[in-house]
Specification:
By secondary structure, this protein is α+β, with helices and mostly antiparallel strands. Among the domains are: 118 residues, Beta Polymerase, domain 2, CATH 3.30.460; 75 residues, Hydrophobic Seed Protein (Orthogonal Bundle), CATH 1.10.110. Helix content is 51%, strand content 10%. Strand 6 and strand 7 form a beta hairpin.
Length: 372
């Protein structure tokens, strides 16, 4: 039984990129032996075990054989005779197919270190095309390491294009696609991920509500990130992922936003924020918004019961460093109208169904007074 550190930990250490997790491959062992040593198996048919103390993942060396469609259509052979090189051969990219033993010696049968030096993302072998999820993984790696100068090898990019053209991405579930998108959001690199998808004509399969993408849109997100670094703000990581999602998908098809959670299988917090952002975009098209226009917008985002929705949109405008004047206008008008209550309108003599009309009229008058 021999244990090797593999995958991301080895790759990122060689790249001088922060190492987040440690995964290991075990050669020459069996599930029974692993369990006898205190390792806990996760999953019935997959030979992966958790270390009894560190909880790091230890996977038995395995080979895979394609038997069906999609990224789940494989059977694994994790016989003790499977070699380290056979295990590394099934991996997606050469930079992910490097192992390190307990003494620090590297095993690199597919020249991953050379590709790291040349800043290339290159597939290991023809088995790459058997798993459509690898298209998204490579796009995600290209986005993550873009600032380090990494690019996708021409032959790998051509293979990805062929896989997309053969409808391989259509076998992925929406939930699995969202997981890859979410990882890009957390790494602040969704726009770069979309650059790759656009280049290989994969947008329609991954984000069908986004009909087009351009370098200009990607540049806008890059500029917003630069601006954020100069802002004195308390924006947290979760808020930032929402802002990036809205900004990247601001040209999405409004007709398809109603059921966005179902079409993309994304959390409602992202779907709601994107819908509000589209309402804001429509409002910003008004060259000279009237008091009625402003109140209509407030009603659309339900300012009265959900004031945090406007707060998010104001912060998104600050994030993109745009529309400073309208930002101030919305903030002031919101502050003024939020102080006007139904009780005040009733005190003015409005009753029954007229209360709603009186509330609207009073709020419009307050906005008009401020605008003048």
């Amino acid at each position: 039984m021999k244990v090797y550190l593999v995958g991301g930990a080895v790759r990122d250490a060689l790249i001088n990129y922060p190492v987040v997790e440690h995964d290991y491959v075990v050669v020459g062992s069996t599930p029974e032996e692993m369990q006898s040593l205190g390792y806990k198996q996760v999953g019935k048919d997959f030979p992966v075990f958790l270390h009894p103390h560190t909880k790091d993942e230890y996977a038995l060396a395995r080979k895979e054989r394609k038997i069906g469609q999609g990224y789940t259509g494989f059977i694994c052979d994790f016989d003790p005779t499977v070699t380290l090189e056979e295990d590394l051969y099934r991996r997606d990219l050469t930079i992910n197919a490097i192992a390190q033993d307990e003494n620090g010696k590297l095993f690199d049968p597919f020249h991953g270190q050379a590709d790291i030096n040349n800043r290339l993302l290159r597939h290991v072998g023809p088995a790459f095309s058997e798993d459509p999820l690898r298209i998204l993984r490579v796009a995600r790696f290209a986005a993550r390491y873009y600032h380090l100068g990494f690019t996708i090898a021409p032959e790998t990019l051509a293979l990805m294009k062929d896989m997309v053209a053969n409808d391989e991405l259509k076998t992925l579930t929406k939930e699995r696609i969202w997981l890859e998108i979410e990882k890009c959001l957390k790494a602040n690199s969704l726009h770069l991920f979309l650059d790759v998808l656009d280049e290989i004509d994969a947008l329609a399969d991954v984000l069908p509500i986004l009909p087009t993408w351009s370098k200009a849109q990607s540049k806008k997100v890059t500029n917003a990130n630069v601006n954020l670094a100069n802002l004195e703000t308390n924006i947290n990581s979760e808020q930032l992922t929402i802002y990036q999602f809205c900004l990247c998908l601001e040209h999405s098809n409004p007709q398809e936003l109603k059921q966005i959670e179902q079409t993309l299988k994304i959390p409602s917090i992202y779907a709601n924020a994107l819908r509000d952002h589209k309402l804001l975009q429509q409002f910003l098209l008004l060259e000279y918004p009237t008091a009625k226009d402003i109140l209509t917008f407030f009603n659309q985002i339900d300012l009265w019961r959900r004031p945090e929705r406007l707060t998010l949109l104001i912060e998104l405008l600050e994030y993109t460093q745009s529309h400073d004047q309208i930002t101030h206008t919305l903030q002031e008008c919101a502050s003024i109208t939020q102080t006007i209550t139904a009780q005040q309108v009733i005190a003015l003599g409005f009753q029954g169904a007229a209360i709603k009309t009186g509330l609207e009229t009073t709020r419009i008058h307050a906005i008009e007074k401020w605008l003048s």
